Amino acid sequence: MPGRETDTGWDRSCEVTARLHALIGQPQVSDAYVRFRLDLLAAQRAARSALAGTVLAPRGSERLPAPLPLAPSDVPFPIGVLAILLEAIRDSAARHGQKTAALQRLSAGVATHPEQLQALAAAAAFEPDLVALESLAREWGVLVDALLFVGRALAAPCVAEAVRARAANGGARTREAPAHRCPACGSAPSVARLRRADGRRVLTCGLCGSEWEAVRLACACCGTLEQSRLGVLRLGDAGPRWVETCDGCKGYIKTVDERRLPEGEVVLPIVEESATLHLDLLAEREGYIRRVPYVMPG
Ligand SMILES: [Zn+2]
Ligand SMILES: [Zn+2]
Question: What span, in angstroms and rounded, lies between the C-alpha atoms of 183 and 219?
Fold first, then answer.
């Protein structure tokens, strides 16, 4: 089902939902995963609605908008919102046949120490704090990768709402950010596309959804420009989708060339993410490592 340019957030959110539904039953797509992402999306949208308007409140005597990219201390992670989201993730995973023992342990752990939910979201968001995540993973008996996904999925509505509120607040103070990091929140990109209009490379932040133009021949994970370290993995020659790899950091990023898509079809990162798990498997089989999953609510 081809997408189309839309004018409003509402139209876009309906289109995202419709295109995710349209993936169900397609070859190479995991129906259970798509259904899980649909549930997660609904829960994250509800969390964003609950957060809207609350993160604009100035904290303490700080009246100036925070400089961009936002730092972890600029984003509130309300425990109540995180707890509802975690419950939704756990219940959806159970409904769609995932093993949930680890999620149950996580839920039970944070029920007695709710402040650990904030610690999890903060450790998984932005540039993940792997030492903190490993410590939480040991405590709850959960794999670090699973914790990274859950923590970023919890954090994403909070970061996205803080970025939106920050943009509405105006101001131009900026911190130094490398070209391969999100200018709004400093996270690594999760998806790349070559823009239909001019073929330029556009990276999408998997945490807040911001997009930015980036150098075409550079690693999206570590930023190296050393061409001998950069490679491409494809399943076929003519397809619009492939994986770009880096032997310097062993990172990779999924890439879609809009110019090879049907006229009018718009790239929606969450749809790309859900439809191309086979590309992640291809990269992992070759020894590359996914740095951060796409968890943006939309
Ligand atoms: Zn971002
Ligand atoms: Zn690299």
Answer: 17
Cis bond upstream, residue 157 (ω within 30) = no
Structural domain boundaries, residue 36: 9-169
> What is the Å distance from ligand 1's center to 237 Cα?
32
Claim to verify: residue 71 and residue 217 sit in the same structural domain = no
- Return the ligand number nearest the Cα of 225: 2
- pLDDT value for 64: 67
Q: Copy the structure tokens of residue 117.
A: 């939910």
Distance 166 CA to ligand 2 centre (A): 30
The CA 36 to ligand 1 mean position distance, Å, reads 23
Give distance in angstroms: CA of 152 to centre of ligand 2: 21
Question: Structure tokens of 8?
Answer: 């409003």
Tally of domains within the chain: 2
pTM: 0.90
Residues 155 and 196 in one domain: no
Whether residue 208 is predicted with pLDDT greater than 70 in this model: the reply is yes
